[in-house]
């Protein structure tokens, strides 16, 4: 039996408590129970919110990489649906091939958003790379013999 009940009933106490003090102690014990219950309910209510605060909607790696625009040089395929990267020799599938159809088969510099997981790219802009022209210079040391 809790102490507050024993004090309120005054049945099992060996010492005497004045009537007003007995009522005050009994009310204090009830208030402590209410405060404790209120504290437990508040903590249980706020606990899931606090646990979820650290786990915000984190974008996946593909979403992170798709937000950043990269510049790649390479060759557009004949139909404009794929792009062959110069540096890695990787073939990227173009998600908007209508942008590259006019310059199919050309060597270009592409600004695009890349989705590495799916191997696709969304082209934002295209620049033609001028063909390098080589010509011999007759005053070069290789021709002076």
Description:
The protein folds into two domains: 51 residues; 68 residues, OB fold (Dihydrolipoamide Acetyltransferase, E2P), CATH 2.40.50.500. Helices cover 34% and strands 23% of the residues. It contains three helices and five strands. Strands 1-2-3-5-4 form a five-stranded mixed β-barrel. α1 packs antiparallel against α2. It is rod-shaped and about 130 Å long. The N and C termini lie far apart (117 Å).
- CATH-derived topology of the largest domain: OB fold (Dihydrolipoamide Acetyltransferase, E2P)
Query: Uncertain segments of ≥5 residues (pLDDT<50)?
Result: none
* Main sheet record: 5 strands, mixed, barrel
What is the H-and-E element order? HHHEEEEE
Q: What is this structure's SSE topology?
A:
Blueprint: H1 3-9, H2 19-53, H3 61-67, E1 69-76, E2 82-85, E3 91-94, E4 107-115, E5 120-128
Parallel strand pairs: 3-5
Antiparallel strand pairs: 1-2, 1-4, 2-3, 4-5
Concise summary:
By secondary structure, the chain is an alpha+beta fold.
Observed structural traits:
2 domains; OB fold (Dihydrolipoamide Acetyltransferase, E2P); 145 residues; rod-shaped; 5 strands; alpha+beta; 5-stranded mixed barrel; single chain; 3 helices
